[in-house]
Prepilin-type N-terminal cleavage/methylation domain-containing protein
Amino acid sequence: MRPYVFLPDHHKGFTMMETLISLFIFLLIVSLSAPLLRLLDSASYNQELAANQLFQYIQMEVTQSQRVTTTPTSILLTDVNDRMISIEKYGNIIRRQVNSTGHEPLLKGVEEVLVDDHINGFIMKVRMKENERYSKFIFVPPHKRTRTGIPFSFNPIPFVHHGNIAYH
């Protein structure tokens, strides 16, 4: 009767030190991968990218337009061909229409849109369904600005805006 099991030299098991080192390496990899997985949250990244593209598109439309009129919830532009372009919230999207026809979605998943007038342009604020908020100052030259059809008087006090896009 043998009280112990005899293992030949080439069948040695893991030592305690090897097991602890393996466990340490495993825990290190797991702890470092958790923040990296949070960075891969594509939904918020895609929303941020889509909002930034919307703001760039609106700035381009404003630059190419003849007249710009804002209301608290929409932007009305008159282009070089005297077409009326509206950018407004419709349901849960921001859409673009030309002469009150068509339906070009510019941004989806929108909860609220606000347009605040300022001296040298306006700030467009967008709140998404996931409660992410984006805002951007859009520059409008004084000769293009109207408010409900009445041209703005030029005010030489500059609006100071730091940064391109604000996140809340």
Notes: The mean pLDDT is 81. DSSP finds two helices and eleven strands in the chain. The CA atoms of residues 69 and 122 lie 10 Å apart. The first helix runs from residue 16 to 39.
